[in-house]
Design goal:
Blueprint: H1 2-14, H2 19-25, H3 29-39, E1 41-44, H4 50-58, E2 66-71, E3 78-79, E4 81-85, H5 91-114, H6 125-134, E5 143-147, E6 152-156, E7 167-172, E8 180-182, E9 185-190, E10 197-201, E11 208-212, E12 215-220, E13 223-233, E14 236-239, E15 241-247
Antiparallel strand pairs: 1-11, 2-4, 3-6, 4-5, 5-15, 6-13, 7-11, 7-15, 8-14, 9-10, 9-13, 12-13
Helix pairs in contact: 1-4, 2-5
Length: 252
């Protein structure tokens, strides 16, 4: 039965061929960079179809796809659970990782230049993954999260080793108001020169949001300084909320 479910899910994800990459390639990446620089996040609407969202959410019950399962309450991360995919990644997850990275790497390099961080990122994700693996960061980090009533996620940063790609992408796989109530994506910023702020990131089913993983550059009279960001999820009131997290650096 599991094999049949996997085949059905993969068939839904693969149709139409190339649509995932086309939607990513035609996004307004200049606007994405502007939004990231101003807010620390940028929304890419409707990158996944509802059918693709449902199929990816269905992976949660296919244990063979994952290397580990985290019950958040055990580690004081909040309430809910998430699972890290194992290699080889499901085709759709690997394709999203490969297709998003080349658009984000040039922005990441400009950010590192502004913040005087020495690391620069190669043009392809395969090259960057090789850098991570050579440094001992060999465990895949893309993950699938599930929240149910009263679940939430504490504010955090997803840092897994010395090599940290400064962006990650989160896909909302359920529809707010229909499939769940509450459970908003939260982003907070701690700016050493200004009062802190918080944003509720508006998402619909199939939307993706690019988030700054740890810092963003903020211009000052003397150049740029670093402002720290964290993200989390507010308490879910009812229903179920699934998200796919695409993190580009691997873990030790």
């Amino acid at each position: 039965m599991s094999a049949l479910l996997s085949a059905s899910a993969d068939a839904e994800i693969h149709a139409p061929s190339g649509a995932l990459e086309s939607g990513i390639d035609t996004a307004d990446w200049r606007a994405v960079e502007d939004d990231l620089g101003r807010d620390g996040f940028a929304v890419l609407p409707a990158l996944l179809t509802p059918q693709q969202c449902n199929a990816i959410a269905g992976y949660f019950f296919e244990e063979e796809r994952f290397r580990s399962r985290i019950v958040m309450e055990r580690y004081a991360f909040g309430r809910g659970e998430y699972k890290y995919f194992s290699y080889p990644l499901p085709d759709v997850v690997g394709r999203l990782r490969q297709s998003l990275y080349p658009h984000l790497a040039p922005i990441a390099n400009r950010w590192h230049t502004a913040m005087k961080i020495n690391e620069r990122f190669p043009a392809t994700h395969d090259e960057f993954r090789a850098v991570c693996h050579a440094a001992g960061q060999q465990r895949p980090t893309p993950l699938l999260l599930r929240y149910q009533a009263n679940d939430y996620c504490c504010l955090h940063q997803d840092l897994y080793g010395d090599h940290v790609f400064p962006f990650q992408v989160i896909f909302l796989l359920n529809e707010p108001g229909r499939d769940f109530q509450g459970g908003e994506l939260l982003l907070t910023e701690s700016n050493p020169k200004q009062p802190g702020r918080a944003d509720v990131v508006p998402l619909r089913q199939g939307d993706a949001v690019v988030l700054a993983v740890n810092h963003r550059p903020v211009r000052s009279a003397r150049g740029f300084y670093r402002s720290s960001l964290r993200h989390g999820v507010s308490r879910l009131h009812s229903g179920q909320r699934h998200t796919l997290g695409v993190i580009f650096h691997d873990a030790r």
